Amino acid sequence: MQATPDSAKAAETPSNGLPREHVEACGVCGARERATFQPMADVVECMACGALYVSPRPTPAAIGEFYSRLGHYDHWDREPGRAAMWQRRTRRIAKLVPPGGLLLDVGTGQGDFGAAAKELFRFEGTEVSSEGARLARERHGLTVHEGDLLGLDLPRGRYDAITMWHVLEHVAEPRATVARCFDLLKPGGVLAVAVPNTDTKFILSRTELGAAYDVAVKRPPRRGIWMPRLLLESSTEEIHLTHFTLGTLTWLLRASGLSLCERGVDDFSADASLRHRVEHHAHALFHRVTGFTSASCIFAAGRKPA
Ligand SMILES: [Zn+2]
Q1: Which domains does the chain have, with CATH numbers?
Q2: Distance 27 CA to ligand 1 centre (A)
Q3: Cα of 111 to ligand 1 centre, how many Å?
Q4: Could you tell me the pTM of the whole model?
Q5: Cα atoms in the 13 Å half-sphere on the side-chain side of 214
Q6: How many A from CA of 13 to the centre of ligand 1?
């Protein structure tokens, strides 16, 4: 398990017994100035780069224990469209990196992406969850390095591609994690990152529209952005420590020395229905035409200079 980062220190233990730590600086840009954003969820806004992050937050040890609980990944097995989703994502990477190269998937979970990616690439993964790593090895025969990327002893300049599918929002130190990926890439290698989209302005406008709709149909209006407090109880599904927009995500890749080679919408849905496919392509088209990201998940890739 990774050590508590320097940018954080032990904080109070709240009523549910969860150990938490204060975050002293933004994990995206390093600035200390912040403003309260969503106090119910301990979310603050960086005054320098606009990233939203959780402080205080559960400690890395508490988060690692949560992910390693047996059965954590069971619901994924019930989604029939997941294999097709991973094949689409694999084809997207293959447009950026020649097939046959060595790919490292950070936070590979139970290995569903590896099962698709190993058809085109030589594959390695990392995973903090002992349960996820075990499943990835047993089900798909994957090479999985168990632990946090920042604590693993992997050779520099080894990989043609590194992927992080909805991982960067979970890590304690996003900037240090991207910097580590930069070191691990070969010259000319590509880092591809997908995260949820927290474009505040859009969400606010959408909730205003939603509120107007609610009034029209005589329902109590919904307002503002709802984010859950991270209590790591049975109701907790996701542990998002940083909330990105396409702007903050691409800023981070560029600030880490990568040249941007793609930005857009992440094709994240395991729902293979026609309605979801049409929705995805509508969001992608809207982004290409307007530059604005209405989709709930975003994708960016950067190339290490040759
Ligand atoms: Zn910042």
Answers
A1: 74-198+244-303 (3.40.50.150)
A2: 7
A3: 32
A4: 0.87
A5: 11
A6: 26
For residue 53, the CA-to-ligand 1 centroid distance in Å is 9
CB atoms within 10 A of CB 206: 14
**pLDDT category of residue 12 using cuts at 50, 70 and 90:** very low
pLDDT tens for residues 202-228?
Answer: 666 666 666 676 677 776 655 556 677
Tokens standing for 238? Answer: 């996701």
Tell me how far the alpha carbon of residue 253 lies from the centroid of ligand 1, in angstroms: 13
CA distance 216 to 230: 34
On average, the pLDDT of the chain sits at: 86
Question: CA dist 5 to 43, 94, 142, 298, Å?
Answer: 19, 34, 29, 27
